[in-house]
Amino acid sequence: MVNLFWLLIIIAVAGVAIWYFNGGSNPRPSSSGTRQPTVFTLQLGDIVQYDNIDWVIEDKLTYNDDGWEWVEYLLQDGDRIGFLSVEDDDTLEVSFTETVKDCPLENPPPAQVTYQQKVYIRQESGTATLKRQRKPDRPAETCKYHDYSGPGEAVMAVEVWGNEVEVSVGQTVRPYQLTFLPGDGQSVYRNDI
After folding, report:
1. Which listed residue, 17, 74, 80, 115, has the most CB atoms within 10 A of its CB?
2. pLDDT for the residue numbered 193
3. Distance between CA 60 and CA 131 in Å, rounded?
């Protein structure tokens, strides 16, 4: 009789322990349904945290140069515009740049550009078509692109759209320097969807 009593006590204690370690009456939410974005799966409305700033993804731009594709995410923080460029070549190449207005360049841009006491050397150039995720029915646009590298991790991207030259400057980054938070799939700054 005493053995049966201790057996029931052990079963009760084990049951309480199992109940407790499985979350008790407040089960933990399942993480299997939570999307965790990566540089390859970012979507409209997701947040990219970089250098203590929360950037919102406002568009996904897919470039194609004769079959070679890469992606740039159009980022926004208030009035600031940035780009997260992701290219999966032999190695993963990720860069973060911001649009600058104080670097006027001619069309075509030179092979070497000096900006804020840094010298940038053109590494590659070409012509690419661009498709915007936010406006998939819009015809593909064409631009001439020029990618430059500067000292250390510094980079410059120049795009020529007709007669307009756009310049953005930044640096290569490692994916671990970025934090990605899932959004709701909606634009924060634009309402023309």
Report:
1. 74
2. 45
3. 8
Amino acid at 138: R
Model's pTM, two decimal places?
0.79
**CB pairs under 8 A, 24+ apart, for 20-28?**
none
Query: What are 96's two structure tokens?
Result: 């973060």
Which has the closest alpha carbon to 124: 82, 99, 103, 93? 93
Report residue 80 as tokens.
């600031």
For residue range 155-184, list pLDDT tens digits in order. 999 999 999 999 999 999 999 999 999 998
Give the long-range contacts of residues 86-94, CB within 8 A, separation 24 or more: 86/39, 86/40, 88/40, 92/39, 92/175, 93/172, 94/39, 94/172, 94/173, 94/174, 94/175, 94/178
Contact 136, 124 (CB under 8 A): no
- 26: pLDDT strictly greater than 50: no
